[in-house]
């Protein structure tokens, strides 16, 4: 597939668009810890380090009060990945976020007040080496445009804001155009991709839980990626952040854009299942996602059919009762007790990788 040619926009130490890889994003889903809660701050930074090892490239935080400024400044400074501040309504918070060290903000210029306030934010981004995502949503279009076709309204609005930004000599712009209607989202992205050369942030709004979001996001974002559109991606899921990262990486792999990372296959289980593959998968999935080698690991429910069904995998694991078996390309390599299953899997995996 030919990827759309875009300008390249720097966000901290990362580049979006141009020849840069498609960046995986997520969003922090809890309030920030109190500034006096050193343990809470360190725990948050630990989570960010884990997300980075899982393949997350950027993380966004809602920045909705200046009371968070001290903690947010620490996060911006210590984070292993660029930080984006999500701003609604108050342009002073956008300015404050940049002075805290945010590498990018996400705003809808239409909901922070006058054009002068938008200019103040853009000037602050210039002064603080920041980028801005113009994030439009069909549900928050200006009232006089809401009854119009949302695709046309969002694209025209985005182009107007781009004109404003460029008139202030600012071009570190990323765009997103989302709507609760999936086809409107798809057409808005394809239309803006034809009209502008700025990098595009892909996402689906109001996506839902794991199943709903994965299906809805794959339906829209998979087609856009296949069209060569998209420079950074977030799969919004109402669940643990790890799922967002895993889903985004899996989608990039499925479309053929990402070749790194372990692809996990697991059987659906049936009446023959003697190994709790579902529980084991949950136990090891996050750790497996920290490997960036392109391998397949199979987690199968029984020893009868599992090894055969998983013979295409580099490493497979299954079991019966208290015995667990590890295979390389369908050939039995190790037998361990159920208690040792996790450590044996990672030892086998690491030995396999080192032998390549
Ligand atoms: S591997 Fe075994 S448990 Fe899993 S679906 Fe196949 S036969 Fe059933």
Outline of the structure:
With 356 residues, the protein is of the alpha/beta class.
Topology:
Elements: E1 9-11, E2 14-16, E3 23-27, H1 38-54, E4 58-62, H2 69-78, E5 83-86, H3 91-100, E6 104-107, H4 115-127, E7 131-137, H5 150-167, E8 173-178, H6 182-195, E9 201-202, H7 210-226, E10 232-233, H8 241-255, E11 263-266, H9 277-288, E12 296-299, H10 306-309, E13 315-320, E14 323-328, E15 331-337, H11 341-355
Helix pairs in contact: 2-3, 3-4, 5-6, 6-7, 7-8
Iron/sulfur cluster (SF4) is lined by residues 267-270, 272-273, 300-302, 304-306, 309.
What characteristics describe this protein?
single chain, alpha/beta, TIM Barrel, Sulfite Reductase Hemoprotein, domain 1, 2 domains, 11 helices, 15 strands, 41% helix, 19% strand, elongated
Tell me the helix content: 40-55%
- In the CATH hierarchy, what is the class of the largest domain? Alpha Beta
* Shape verdict: elongated
| CATH-assigned fold name of the largest domain | TIM Barrel
Structural class: alpha/beta
Work out the strand percent.
15-25%
**What string, H for helix and E for strand, traces the elements in order?**
EEEHEHEHEHEHEHEHEHEHEHEEEH
Ligands bound to this protein structure: iron/sulfur cluster
Mean pLDDT over the residues: 94
Stretches with pLDDT under 50, minimum 5 residues: none
Number of helices: 11
Biggest sheet architecture? 8 strands, parallel
- CATH second-level architecture of the largest domain: Alpha-Beta Barrel
Radius of gyration: 23 Å
């Amino acid at each position: 597939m030919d990827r759309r040619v875009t300008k390249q926009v720097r966000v901290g130490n990362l580049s979006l668009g141009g020849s840069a890889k498609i960046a995986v994003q997520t969003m922090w889903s809890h309030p920030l810890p109190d500034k006096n809660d050193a343990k809470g701050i360190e725990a948050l930074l630990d989570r960010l380090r884990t997300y980075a090892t899982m393949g997350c490239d950027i993380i966004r935080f809602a920045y909705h009060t200046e009371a968070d400024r001290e903690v947010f400044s620490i996060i911006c400074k210590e984070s292993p990945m660029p930080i984006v501040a999500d701003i609604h309504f108050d342009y002073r918070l956008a300015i404050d976020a940049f002075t805290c060290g945010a590498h990018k903000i996400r705003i809808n210029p239409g909901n922070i007040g006058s054009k002068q306030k938008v200019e103040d934010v853009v000037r602050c981004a210039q002064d603080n080496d920041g980028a801005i995502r113009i994030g439009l949503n069909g549900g928050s279009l200006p009232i006089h445009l809401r009854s119009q076709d949302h695709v046309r309204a969002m694209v025209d609005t985005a182009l107007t804001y781009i004109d404003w930004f460029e008139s202030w000599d600012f071009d570190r712009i990323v765009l997103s155009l989302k709507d609760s209607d999936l086809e409107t989202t798809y057409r808005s992205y394809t239309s803006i991709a034809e009209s502008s050369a700025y990098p595009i942030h892909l996402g689906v709004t109001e996506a839902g839980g794991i199943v709903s979001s994965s299906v809805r996001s794959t339906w829209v974002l998979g087609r856009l990626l296949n069209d060569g559109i998209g420079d950074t991606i977030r799969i919004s899921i109402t669940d643990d952040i790890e799922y967002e990262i895993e889903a985004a990486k899996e989608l990039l792999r499925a479309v053929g854009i990402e070749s790194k990372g372990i692809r996990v296959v697991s059987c659906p289980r049936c009446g023959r299942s003697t190994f709790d593959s579902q529980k084991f998968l949950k136990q090891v999935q996050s750790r497996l996602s920290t490997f960036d080698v392109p391998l397949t690991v199979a987690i199968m429910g029984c020893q009868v059919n599992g090894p055969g069904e998983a013979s295409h995998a580099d490493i497979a694991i299954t079991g019966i009762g208290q015995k667990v078996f590890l295979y390389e390309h369908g050939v039995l390599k190790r037998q361990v007790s159920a208690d040792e299953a996790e450590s044996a899997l990672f030892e086998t995996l690491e030995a396999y990788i080192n032998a390549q």
